[in-house]
What we know:
The chain is α/β, with parallel strands linked by helices. The chain has eleven helices and twelve strands. It folds into three domains: about 5-90, Arc Repressor Mutant, subunit A (Orthogonal Bundle), CATH 1.10.10.10; about 95-165 and about 275-305, Periplasmic binding protein-like II (D-Maltodextrin-Binding Protein, domain 2, 3-Layer(aba) Sandwich), CATH 3.40.190.10; about 170-270, D-Maltodextrin-Binding Protein, domain 2, CATH 3.40.190.
Amino acid sequence: MDRRIKFRHLEAFVVIVRARRLKRAAEQLNLTQPAISKTLRDLEEILGVSLMTRDRSGVRLTPEGKVFLQYAEQSTAALRQGINSIASLSEAGGHVLKIGVLPSVAAQVLPKAIEAFRRVSPDTILDVDEGSHGFLTDCLRNGELDLVVGRLGNAESMRGLSFTALYSESVVAVVAPDHPRRDATRLEQIEEDLIIYPPDAAAIRPLLAQLMLSRGMALFSDRIECVSGALGRAMTLGALQPVWFISRGVVADDLDAGRLVALDIDMRSTEGAVGIMARSEENSSALVGLFRIALSDAAVALASH
């Protein structure tokens, strides 16, 4: 875009069109008629076309003016909306933003996103709920949450919701460092073990079911179905020593620190998108938009780590 075009050019053009007369437009903008005429003339010179004709009946758009008008209106409206959004952020003290997160996001991306968000909106209260995919998406649809961050679910679970991808992650099978089958490389080798398995409402369960079906295996018979990261971690490191199937993000820090070990089983087919879910029919508030930016930045930082 030609850098010579300024907001005052676009605003003057739009106001002249709506007012239909230069004098009336000048009054609305608190300008003199010669000043607004010069602004319009400058814009036409920059564009190299005539945008309107002027006669005793007022102003009439040229074909070029009709084309340019829609973009000028969109630009001025977008800028005003941005200014109003910034103003609303400064008035957001005491406002509550309700976020639903799946465990993998709560463990990795969310802390960084919250840090960034609070730097620009420190007075906003964040109400964060952790739970299964089915529970959180139901709460989102019912208006109990403003956003949900987690794995993309199946078509039915995403009904009425939009999804913006942030990054991808896979499921891992993790065990305690001293687990007798820590060197297992096939699912069949842990078939008789106690398993911590995602419940029906978890987004990763269909992916694991598909993986097992591809291996000709039935659902593990000796299993505990659990979505809690805290319980899964405590049990995996406890006396029962189960094998825990969980999204990598939930246990990333444990794997890096050596507290848990990921079995060398091919789980690439369980990889899926993690992103932001929102009600598809609603426009985002300034606070929701700001939190989206914080999440995106945190996801980029995670990918480069």
